[in-house]
Design a protein that fits this description.
The chain has two domains: 3-174, Acetylglutamate kinase-like (Carbamate kinase, 3-Layer(aba) Sandwich); 255-399, VC0802-like, CATH 3.30.2130.10. It is built from twelve helices and 18 strands. It has helices at 16-31, 46-57, 63-87, 119-126, 153-163, 197-205, 213-221, 275-285, 314-323, 325-328, 355-365, 389-399; strands at 3-8, 35-40, 92-95, 102-104, 113-116, 130-134, 137-140, 145-147, 169-173, 194-196, 226-230, 238-241, 254-270, 290-299, 302-310, 332-345, 372-376, 379-385. Helix 1 links the parallel strand 1 (3-8) and strand 2.
Length: 412
């Protein structure tokens, strides 16, 4: 008997009709003789609504209470899904994350799964029940409810699939698969038949919201094939796996982007040997996530240090740097907001020099100024003005021959 783990995202369970449609799919797998575990997200945009409620009360809501609040979204869906299945004559049971044995670090709002105790899942599966699990949530050792970070239901599903040694994990969503770029933004995005774990991990980390990065990490670590597919139509999805077919033999497999980026420059920082660690430890201790860092000597004993971060972290970062002006000893601070990061990703880059040069050439041909650059073996990211982000995406998409002949199909 095969064990099937599937996950339905928010849009795919956005109303009662969609929950019933998802339940039909669950029923099909169950009736085909499989052991079925289904992970669900909160309905539609209900997590956003809960966040908004909290923000109406506080600018910085207590993190423990946020987890208490946000974890309720998924609980609504699990119970409704089980009711839908029971109406269809299927024996099913709903479990919260902690009832399903999902253990996490003692961190609120962005906890990592540390272990899954599958005993309860196995018991119900052994009784022939379909098990519906709330995504995005777990419990720390001390019994606190935690959540896995926005989009974290994907990770719940993959972690359960790995723990139950399922053959694969299906992520049902509102697009038909993984595209060369977000099909809602890139007019000519093309669906990929397959993509490697490493490429998908880069894309997810660089802003492609279709999969939670940690879900891809788990899948890679357990060599578990991940299938991203439509919850609305029965069409082939995209498989995320180790070895990717030579489909089109592309050097660049996809593009990802992120808006609301700010660049901060610390001017004329004394070049003491602990200067960099002083600055970045200060930011890290306050949980500020710094992305690209550039260091430039401006004199024998002075340097400019620039770094990028999410614009929402700007006030906190400026406050910290200003409060520590004296110890750090810099001359001034500048910042530039309304920037965006656009990245190209592809395993083929390793053996193809000149990809970055082509990227810069294409951008300069369209008068797009590159403010910062960061590279790894399989990606190049550039920071550009946010107003030019859409053009940069289009230009790079066609430069690297990713364009499809037809417009992508997405469900609204
Ligand atoms: P769910 O609620 O099912 O988890 P998400 O909104 O988290 O759905 O993820 C699906 C969305 O991801 C799509 O609607 C699409 O706009 C976005 N997306 C971003 N990058 C990509 C990509 N490369 N391929 C497909 N979809 C992408
Ligand atoms: N409901 C959570 C969110 O909106 C988790 C998820 O959907 O994956 O982020
Ligand atoms: Mg998602």
């Amino acid at each position: 008997m095969a064990t099937i783990v599937q996950k339905f995202g928010g849009t795919s369970v956005g109303d009662v009709t969609k929950i019933k449609r998802a339940a039909e799919r669950v029923k099909r797998e169950h009736e085909a003789g499989n052991r079925v575990v289904t992970v669900v997200s909160a309905m539609g945009k209900s997590t956003d609504t809960l966040v908004q409620l909290a923000n109406e009360i506080s600018d910085s809501p207590d993190r423990r209470e946020m987890d208490m609040l946000l974890s309720t979204g998924e609980q609504v869906t699990i119970s409704l899904m089980v009711m839908a299945l029971k109406e269809m004559g299927i024996d099913a049971v709903s479990l919260t994350g902690w009832q399903a044995g999902i253990k996490t670090e003692p961190v609120h709002q962005n906890a990592r799964i540390t272990d899954i105790d599958t005993e309860r899942l196995e018991t119900y599966l052994g009784e022939g029940k379909v098990v519906i699990v709330a995504g995005f949530q777990g419990m720390s050792e001390s019994g606190e409810i935690t959540t896995l970070g926005r989009g974290g239901s994907d990770t719940t599903a993959v972690a359960i699939a790995a723990a139950l040694k399922a053959e694969s994990c299906s992520i049902f969503t509102d697009v038909t698969g993984v595209y060369t770029c977000d099909p809602r933004v890139a007019k000519h995005a093309r669906q990929l038949q397959s993509i490697s774990y490493d490429e998908m991990l880069e894309l997810a980390n660089l802003g492609a919201g279709v999969l939670h990065p940690r879900a891809v990490e788990f899948a890679k670590n357990y060599s578990l094939p991940l299938i991203v597919r439509s919850s609305m139509e029965d069409v082939e999805g995209t498989i995320v796996e180790e070895d990717v077919s030579m489909e089109q033999n592309l050097i660049v497999r996809g593009l990802a982007f992120e808006g609301a980026v700010t660049k901060i420059t610390i001017e004329r920082l004394p070049n003491r040997f602990h200067a960099m660690s002083d600055v970045f430890s200060l930011l890290a201790e306050s949980g500020i996530d710094v992305d690209i860092i550039i260091q430039q000597m401006t004199g024998e004993n002075e340097m400019n240090v620039s770094f990028s971060l999410h614009t929402q972290e700007l006030p906190e970062a400026l406050k910290l740097l200003e409060n520590n002006h004296e110890q750090l000893g810099y001359q001034g601070i500048r910042h530039e907001d309304s920037l965006a990061k656009v990245s190209i990703v592809g395993s083929g880059m390793v053996s193809n020099p000149g990809v970055a040069a082509n990227m810069f050439q294409a951008l300069s041909d369209h008068e797009i100024e590159v403010k910062m650059v960061s590279t790894s073996e399989i990606k190049v990211s550039v920071v550009v003005p946010e107003a030019k982000m859409a053009t940069a995406i289009d230009v790079l998409h066609s430069t690297f021959e990713l364009d499809a002949s037809e417009k992508p199909k997405v469900t609204v």
